Amino acid sequence: GNNVSTVAVAAVRFVPWLKHMLGRHPLSRSLLLRMDVEGAEYELLLELAASRVLEQLNNEGWRVVVLVEWHQQHKQAAVARLTPDRLDTLGRWQAELKGLPPAQAAE
Predict the structure, then answer these.
(1) What angle do CA 61, 64, 65 make, to 5 degrees?
(2) What is the pTM (predicted TM-score) of this model?
(3) How far apart (Å, rounded) are the C-alpha atoms in residues 59 and 19?
(4) Which of 14, 46, 52, 59 has the fewest CB atoms within 10 Å of its CB?
């Protein structure tokens, strides 16, 4: 039959992990986030937007670059999970991104 095995992996919440890592490197003043998370990018970006951590870094003079590999096949399921408060967060974040120069606010 099938030769199936189970592997346990550790999981972390992204925003608390990111804050921890930023605290370990407070003088860096640069942050590059590259996401290829097979559809979880929608959820992850909503969590990041709600935390306002990128806004805080920007206000403190950090250079922040976010690169996302989008997986369109997961978009419909992610959008279906949006609640009114999450739509409000997403709307605020989109409005903030629209204020950036085009090179920084790429789609």
Answers:
(1) 160
(2) 0.64
(3) 15
(4) 59
